[in-house]
Amino acid sequence: MPVTFTFGEMLSARSVIGTTLAELGAEHENLWVLTPDIGATLVEFRDTYPDRFLDVGLAEQVCVGIAAGLAYDGNIPVVSGMLPFLSMRALEQVRTDVCYPNLPVKIIGTHGGLVGNGGSTHYAVEDLAIMCSLTNMTVTSIGDPLMVGEILRQSMSMRGPIYIRLAVGKKDMVLYEPGEHEVRIGKGIVAREGTDATIFTHGTVVAQALQAADELAKDGRSVRVVDMFTLKPIDEDLIAQCAEETDGRFVVLEDHLAYGGLASRIADVLADRGIHLTAFERLGIPQVYAGFGEDEELRDKHGYGLDATIAATRRVIAAQS
Amino acid sequence: MARTSLRSAEDRPSVEELEDLAFELRSKLLHLCGTYEGAVHIGGDLSAADIFTALFHYGLEVDPSDIANPERDRFVLSKGHAAVCMYITMAIRGFFSYDGIVETYGKLDSAYGMHPCKVQLPGVEASTGSLGHGLPLAVGMALGARHRGEDHRVVCLLGDGETGEGSVWEAAMAARSNELGNLVAFIDRNRQLMTSFAEERVVFEPYADKWRAFGWNVIETDGHDMAKLVAAIDALPATDSDRPTVVIAETVKGKGVDFMEHNLAWHAGSLGAADLERAMASLEANRKKETV
Fold first, then answer.
1. Helices in B77-133 by DSSP H: which ranges?
2. Among A56, A62, A70, beta carbon nearest to B144
3. DSSP reduced 3-state for B76
4. Which structural domain, as residue segments, surrounds residue A233?
5. How far apart are CA B275 and CA A149, in angstroms?
6. What is the C-alpha to C-alpha distance for residues A269 and B261, in angstroms, rounded to an integer?
7. Is B71 on the interface with A (CB under 8 A)?
8. How far is it, in rounded angstroms, from Cα B70 to Cα B109?
9. Does A18 contact B at CB distance below 8 Å?
10. Cα-flanking dihedrals φ and ψ of residue B126, to 5°?
11. What CATH class is the domain B13-291?
């Protein structure tokens, strides 16, 4: 089904997953979909390919282990679930059963960040730090719901595993017109051009970064927004290019622990390449187990909401060079 | 459903021949344990030696000259610390060079390490070592075989100690739920963990009932009686049946060497030259006792 949503509309990333998997299931007879009891969005695939769909119930470890067993024998398994559990309870299966033999297992899930109001049992806030540390793992975090389908499609030809992080995936802002940007795993997207500073971001808060850039444009500030949806391998050249073109002024905004995620990955590239910045601020979740509240309320409370993003960007732009 | 056979019936060894092969395996294990300076998991190797022999020389449809044959049975070693027992069994069966194992085991860039790695050693089916991981992998392989309409079997060898891992029971539920009659778990029931005996700190009994309660077909046997192991293999249901089978094989950790049997000190270790001689003498004596 051709997708006709346009910028600014709300669309469910989960429905894109469902539609895309059903599509891919027709193209790839060895594509399997597995879930630990999070199958509501997978109905289309389940009903079309019941013999390649497996709901193991509440058992993340065996879900990932079975996926690895299927992949050993030439299948392409997609594991879909909630990321706090797939990234932590099944971590050893992901690392040892999937990454060690470098099997083409796709792990896709929701609840990346302080989203869904489930409390800290249900927020995946360490997942990117964990996944980025795994040899052979490609790590992505997607904000635009339409991109989810494209990433899944591209991942079909990958030899090794990939981790695809979504927020809640129920109502997501369509950020890009279809075809507006080249979407390629490993390459960042310049979602908005600018020369005074760059906001690097990923996932659900890309929309917030774009909004901050809009607000700052009212004051004549030209802020670049980079959707660094692939955290590993990171687009090093784009980081270097932004350092040069936006006067070494960086803000990193993410719905993940402020240390260990994208900000840390970028800081590593800067240190390794000897790139000197004028100013660098990281906005993300501090070392707290966040409580309950709506997504925006939690981001405001913990210092990485819209106002904090605007303020940090102003500080970065005002910093003495 | 008749299973695809990768060799003729007359190539299959007799019980007596299997016993000789198991003796050869134990001798070679002890030799490695006596010459390699690092630790060898000799206790659990010796407890599983008859099971390995019965599987690789009798039960499994495998072809050493065609390791990627899609019709082959898949063998997943969940108790990955018995890797060297698998390597040597497979060497005796013709997969690998025994000299290659002895010369390189555990050394830099060797394919033969403490725990098996499929990437480094094609011919083994899965990279294992962390306990409780093998059965989920085997469930995935069995599902894949079912889906493709293949009639091969997936056999997974576990230690009883590792069935303390919750993921084993997740896999037990998944196998039953998906009616995987093409899946067989062998349990090396040696009743020892690394630092304690079964029931001392962890209660396993009623062990067979646990598997029955999970909906598995249970075969209980003596894991050191080759005739009984062969009978257990012969009694496995057809691969298109709807229940996974567990063969609980009663064993002795360190089996065949008196000073290793039932001895927590021999979970893993290295024999010096003198102890190797002592171990071999014990192995020989126990063999004579059995043949008398």
1. 83-93, 98-104
2. A70
3. strand
4. 189-318
5. 63
6. 56
7. no
8. 29
9. no
10. -155, 150
11. alpha beta
**A150 and A196 both lie in a single domain:** no
Residue of B nearest to A31 (CA): B144
> Does a structural domain hold residue A126?
yes
Residue A35 sits at the chain B interface (C-beta within 8 Å): no
Q: Under a CB-based contact definition with an 8 Å cutoff, are residues A115 and A84 in contact?
A: no
Query: Which among A116, A145, A173 is the end of a domain?
Result: A173
Residues pairing with A107 in the sheet = A79, A163
**In chain B, what residues touch A100 (CB-CB under 8 Å)?**
117, 119, 127
**Cα A314 from Cα A316, distance rounded (Å):** 5
- Ordered per-residue pLDDT tens for chain A, 321 residues: 445 566 777 778 888 888 999 999 999 999 999 999 998 889 999 999 999 999 999 999 999 999 999 999 999 999 999 999 999 999 999 999 999 999 999 999 999 999 999 999 999 999 999 999 999 999 999 999 889 999 999 999 999 999 999 988 777 888 998 889 999 999 999 999 999 999 999 999 999 999 999 999 999 999 999 999 999 999 999 999 999 999 999 999 999 999 999 999 999 999 999 999 999 999 999 999 999 999 999 999 999 999 999 999 999 999 998
- Of the three residues A126, A145, A173, the one that is the final residue of a domain is A173
Q: Do A62 and B174 touch (CB under 8 A)?
A: yes
Task: Enumerate the domain spans of chain B.
Answer: 13-291
Residues of A in Cβ contact (< 8 Å) with B177? 56-57
In a domain, A1, yes or no: no
Beta strand pairing call for A10-11 and B154-159: unpaired
> Integer distance in angstroms from the first to the last C-alpha of chain B?
41
Say whether both A197 and A308 belong to one domain. yes
- Based on the fold, state whether residues A74 and A15 are members of the same structural domain: yes
Instruction: Indicate if A166 and A311 belong to the same structural domain.
Output: no
A residues 63-82 near B, CB within 8 Å? 64-75, 77
Q: Name the residue in chain B with its Cα closest to that of A100.
A: B127
| Predicted-complex ipTM score | 0.94
| Contact flag A62-B129 (C-beta cutoff 8 Å) | no
> Which chain A residue's Cα is nearest to B126?
A72
Looking at the structure of chain A, the number of domains it has is: 2
C-alpha distance from A161 to closest chain B C-alpha (Å): 15
Q: Does B145 touch chain A (CB under 8 A)?
A: yes
- Which chain A residues are Cβ-neighbours of B214 within 8 angstroms? none
